[in-house]
Task: structure prediction
Amino acid sequence: MSTSASPSLTWSDGEIQRDGKPHRILSGAVHYFRVHPDQWEDRLRRLAAMGANTVDTYIAWNFHERTEGEYDFTGWRDVARFIRLAGEVGLDVFVRPSPYICAEWSNGGIPFWLSGRTSTLRTVDPAYLAAVDAWYDQLIPQVAPLQAAHGGPIRLIQVENEYGSYGSDAGYMAYLRDALTSRGMVEMLTTADGTTADMVRNGSTPGVMGTFTFGTGVPAAIALNRDGEHLMCSELWGGWFDHWGEQHHVRSADSMIGTVDELLAAGGSVSLYMAHGGTNFGFWAGANHDGNIQPTITSYDSDAPIGEDGTLGDKFHALRAAFAPFHDGELPEVPEAPKRQPAASAALTAQAGLLDVVRSFPVTAESPMPLTFEALGAEEGLVAYESQITFPAAATIGILGLRDRATIYLDDMRLGVLEHDGSHTLALPADGGEGRLTILVESLGRINYGPFTGEAKGILQGVVINRRRYVHGWEHRVLGDGVPSSPVPERAQSSSPVPERAQRDEGALGLAAASFDVTDVADAWLAFPGGAKGMVWLNGFLLGRYWERGPQETLYAPAPLWREGANEIVVLDTDRLGSSVEIREQPAFGPVEEFIGS
Result:
């Protein structure tokens, strides 16, 4: 591979040129890590039919290096295959690599093992940059040969993501720029920031074209656009994501296309965020922080033009009409609607109580004080903390530095739930006594944006009785993200359905399973009526979470995860198991509210 290749895209005098000719970027975001790889080509073809000439994707560092020094670019993580597919479909590629991506993705894409040992993320701190360099040494050889300068589809590369709203380390931005170019990235480099002078100033670096992120901020972007740079919105928010406990955010097609048309009329380029949102499978959903944690739901549908299962909405057709005049020939035909499984229902059958599931996992560490997820090597999910306690009459139990949600037991009695901020306590038995304390802590999603990015999970300080006396002597069990399938005590086995009206005893919580026989494999939407807060596996794959606080009511289960014949669904609910699992023919995202953005 030649190191003297020239970029295929250049910018000057407010214009982008592609191989020497004036060019507009008409892009949409599709994240390979949020789409089953068997569906990558389908989603890319839908994007091309929308009239896009470019696909943009982040590269999530923590998706590829979950354990330090162990890199994976195979299967679902084969980002080079995704890029090649885009080129075969006829799309250019806008690569937005790590180290930080935001994206409402766990920890903003930064590996938990790195944020767990340094608080100087996204700076020139040598320890942080050493990890970035090691990562780039693995990542860049995957993507550099796929640049247009070498016959591939990559034509743009983002240096960092919205850095101007986070920090002010100019040396860091320059370091990342040089880290890319020195490893052979020759195509056009960009940054992306919000529409304030402060963000643009702190997020820019010489030799790199600045772009913007906004929902309706075309006039502000025009005013901030620097001499010679092409006007481009790298994230035009055509919809928005959801947090648990909020309403489902939507943006009308008229509102979205109004901003797109305004940008195109001003001579600008656009990348719609998201064109196809996909799904935060497993525990990959991130969280925001606004005085308290705001965890993101499993769905990343984002009211996008191409829905979570590939359904094409009004926004798709509005964009197709807006983009068509910028193409010399006819656009690809509009693909057919995706197939869905017919409605069905199956009873949930109890398998084990929650405590029996917890104690089926081995003790992995002992410590005088509770250890964080990071100290235990736990990326996400659940960790159980256990200790023998004594307590006086009328005592309370509290957690200092809880991240994020704890289900608490004394022996086999469920005391209740505490959440995040640690300002609340639970009452212990009034007469005093002793017992085995079990605290099952769930990470609700690592913070992906702002100064709390990288915050640890688990119990950060300690457990206290009556707000002052520490509990010492802890055992830890890491449940991980695999199907809870370890042997459990015989007394916990059951072949009876979960009661229609689950009681607040241990038998109504924990592990249950259902089975569906499928003759025609297709997409499905799963619902868990009566369930309170659970995790769901389909044929061994962790789909994500459901939570009765909403807004999301159904989980997307893509066709490649199903098989002809019997399919097993396993549910682990920490609060209240429902009595059945339903296949629904339509998704339900809950009550909606209009979002436009600035």
Remarks:
- The two ends are 43 Å apart (CA to CA).
